[in-house]
Amino acid sequence: MAKTIRSTGQVALCQALVDARIKAGLGQAELATKLRCHQSLIARLESGQRRVDVVELVVLARAIGFDPYEVLAIVEVATEPDHRI
């Protein structure tokens, strides 16, 4: 049973966000400008230093242009069956 911040599901989420941003041709600073936040927040989200809640996932999906359900499917597959909250 992994800790939630570095679990396989959390790592998969972070990587999916990075992959989606890069696929969209956005840098961290460009995404931060679109979201009206600091680039350091994007870096913390992508590195797993800060967790992403469901509402933030939807906002990120809109800003980057990805389907949040596809990212959730990636996280679901990666999350250990015995993962605890």
Automatic annotation (TrEMBL):
Q: Name one GO molecular function term.
A: DNA binding
Q: So which residues are the signal peptide here?
A: none
Q: InterPro entries under this entry? A: Cro/C1-type_HTH (IPR001387), Lambda_DNA-bd_dom_sf (IPR010982)
Which Pfam families does the protein's record reference? HTH_31
Domain HTH cro/C1-type residues, every copy: 17-71
SMART domains with a match to the protein in the record: HTH_XRE (SM00530)
Name this protein carries in UniProt? HTH cro/C1-type domain-containing protein
Supply the source organism for this entry. Roseovarius nubinhibens (strain ATCC BAA-591 / DSM 15170 / ISM)
Lineage of the source organism? Bacteria, Pseudomonadati, Pseudomonadota, Alphaproteobacteria, Rhodobacterales
